[in-house]
Design brief:
The mean pLDDT is about 90. By secondary structure, this protein is mainly α. The chain has 7 helices and no strands.
């Protein structure tokens, strides 16, 4: 249980002022969320847009600061889990069974990426960005393109 609550082992080893460069894989892969953000604005999915504009900047800052514990980590973790929960809730509204299976695959890759990086911290740098940034970004874009909002805020 405690492995799921722990950050990566290097997070406490870096200086508080240390920052990853913008071109680092853990930072720049947040750009993959831009199509989802665009689609949510275009389709007026304000609920998903709110979650994305909350979670993407928090996650970018969190990774730029080497995943250190603290208020930013708690906020980023909450917003990332909120985005995941939104995606899971949208599974029940998939327009076709093909899209349902595709979204289930994205969900499984995201869960696998989270668990594998927690269980094997040495895999964090090479795999976290793909399983926890790129895949959820594609999943978010798919939801934004094909689903109605869960909350009608128009």
């Amino acid at each position: 249980k405690e492995v799921l609550l722990r950050g990566p082992p290097w997070a406490e080893e870096v200086l508080p002022e240390a920052r990853r460069p913008w071109c680092h894989l853990q930072v720049w892969t947040h750009a993959f969320f831009l199509p989802a953000i665009y689609l949510t604005m275009r389709r007026r999915m304000w609920d998903l847009l709110f979650i994305l504009v909350l979670s993407v900047p928090l996650s970018t800052l969190y990774h730029r600061r080497h995943e250190r514990s603290g208020p930013l980590a708690l906020s980023e973790g909450f917003s990332a889990k909120l985005l995941f929960a939104y995606g899971v809730a949208q599974l029940f509204h998939a327009p076709t069974w093909h899209y349902f299976l595709l979204e289930c695959l994205a969900c499984a890759v995201t869960v696998f990426g989270f668990l594998i990086c927690k269980a094997y911290p040495r895999l964090y740098d090479p795999w976290h960005a793909w399983g926890m940034h790129c895949c959820p970004a594609a999943w978010s874009a798919l939801v934004a393109a094909l689903h109605p909002p869960l909350l009608l805020l128009s």
